[in-house]
Amino acid sequence: MSLRLLAGVCGGLITTRNAETIEGPPRSFTMVDGIMFLTVFMMLILPSSSVEDEESKLKGKLYECVCEGMSCVNGDRCHGQHCFSALSLNDGKWVYQKGCFQVYEQGKMTCKTPPSSDQAVECCQEDLCNLNITAQLPIKGKPRYGEALAYSVPTLAIAIVAPILVLIILAVIAVYVFGKINRNHMERLNARDAEYGTIDGLIASNVGESTLADLLDHSCTSGSGSGLPFLVQRTVARQITLIECVGKGRYGEVWRGQWQGENVAVKIFSSRDEKSWFRETEIYNTVLLRHENILGFIASDMTSRNSSTQLWLITHYHEMGSLYDHLQLTTLDTVSCLRMALSIASGLSHLHVEIFGTQGKPAIAHRDLKSKNILVNKNGQCCIADLGLAVMHFQDTNQLDVGNNPKVGTKRYMAPEVLDETIQVDCFESYKRVDIWAFGLVLWEIARRTVSNGIVEDYKPPFHDVVPNDPSFEDMKKVVCIDQQRPNIPNRWFSDPTLTSIAKLMKECWYQNPSARLTALRIKKTLTKIDNSLAKVKAEC
């Protein structure tokens, strides 16, 4: 089949376009299908031809590639370490696309994926090598369009006894009903998808043979400046095996999964929290968002399993869990305390700052910073997670993007201006100052678990002594706004120079007047100065 090549423009992101509308082969139920699978439709298993991944000897070399797509904004050429030509089936239409992968491992992950009945990718590593290559689906064993499937109902009916036939008919009817319900649900999701901004394909990172931690670091420091490309839908999700559930909450569940032998975290959102999934997916795709102190994003996918729709967010896996869990089990020394505090401040500072340029990033405010939304690495540093309520700001257009999620943050960590509803909702600086208030509370949680002179307090959440376990909005408003109380600072902190400095810092995050609070960058610099002073004292000793 010949395709008319359209000159597109490419900026490193892969987009889709409709080439020719090809109606797929008709799917029909047979008795064998009902016995073996009990599904509404029969998937054709096609032998996939192996796609060999040619190892690049010079990973730093960039090749000029042809780029075809509706959103190629920099011309019909792009430069990367792999060129590709892809074919996929999207909503009953075949979509052809060409482009390049700017990160080496990113290309390896996609190029190693074998072709299937609805997707194929061909890769190469030469200048303009994808000009004359076209990804093709496997041909052997594939039914011709319009051709009836091999099984014949009358022939099989002779061989199957009447009771089994009755059971099959009942099973088909039941599966058809469930399938229709699921299709209706998918249509509602697609309608919402159009409202929030369509997320057609899988968003995947440069996952290859290296460890995910190495790849995340590489993505942060490679200097490519590009976001992650849109790839064929469900590529990664199909290859992930869910191992164990490691957490549950109102949002859904978190599972430890495995992809090619490595652990990943799979956050499965409940259907009532779809808006958080859409928002978090959108935020994680922001160019240059990747940072060692922000949870490493791998993929986002909308999948259907067991006749129900699941919304997956696949991220880096941290076996030590959240800061909330870690502090309940572990005490800290002053070095560990500063390492954690400085890493959180670094991640928050990166979120808050806007990076200008053609490959920049908007300023982002978290809006739900708390110890449960911060994860602990093996090296003792922390990374910020859960961006479902985040707000973005673009200074050049003065555009404030607050998303379309009616949820609010955690009441225990709400700033005074949020509780008394005096916050300027149209001012981005207001949201940053709310983050600073919450950071001060997290810093207090860390400091309580830091040993000084052999003394340490048990873990307690902020305001544990003045509000119940699940405080109401009015409970917090009375304590924080009317009584203007702040978390208690133990006297033992003032006998330790490091904890004394940290206590002073957290108080400057808790000013009733939001504009008087420190910025994230100022906090980061102050903690760095405290850390350097501590290192100097230890060196002299």
The CATH topology name of the largest domain reads: Transferase(Phosphotransferase), domain 1
Look at the structure and name the CATH superfamily of the largest domain. Transferase(Phosphotransferase) domain 1
N/C terminus separation = 77 Å
Would you identify the CATH architecture of the largest domain? Orthogonal Bundle
Helix content: 25-40%
| Overall number of domains | 3
Binding site for ATP: 267
Pfam families: Activin_recp, PK_Tyr_Ser-Thr, TGF_beta_GS
Organism: Erpetoichthys calabaricus
EC number: 2.7.11.30
Keywords, separated by commas or semicolons:
Activin_recp, single chain, membrane, 541 residues, CD59, Phosphorylase Kinase, domain 1, four-stranded antiparallel sheet, 31% helix, 3 domains, alpha+beta, Transferase(Phosphotransferase), domain 1, disordered N terminus, seven-stranded antiparallel sheet, transmembrane helix
Task: Summarize this structure briefly.
Helix content is 31%, strand content 18%.
Helix and strand topology:
Layout: E1 18-20, H1 31-36, E2 63-66, E3 77-80, E4 82-90, E5 93-101, H2 104-111, E6 119-124, H3 153-159, H4 162-196, E7 202-204, H5 212-221, E8 230-231, E9 241-249, E10 252-259, E11 262-269, H6 274-284, E12 297-305, E13 308-316, H7 323-329, H8 334-352, E14 363-365, E15 374-376, E16 382-384, E17 391-394, E18 399-401, H9 416-419, H10 428-448, H11 473-482, H12 497-507, H13 520-540
Antiparallel strand pairs: 1-5, 2-3, 4-5, 4-6, 7-8, 7-12, 9-10, 10-11, 11-13, 12-13, 14-17, 15-16, 17-18
Helix pairs in contact: 8-10, 8-13, 10-12, 12-13
Keywords: ATP-binding, Glycoprotein, Kinase, Magnesium, Manganese, Membrane, Metal-binding, Nucleotide-binding, Receptor, Serine/threonine-protein kinase, Signal, Transferase, Transmembrane, Transmembrane helix
Domain GS: 210-239
GO molecular function: ATP binding; metal ion binding; transmembrane receptor protein serine/threonine kinase activity
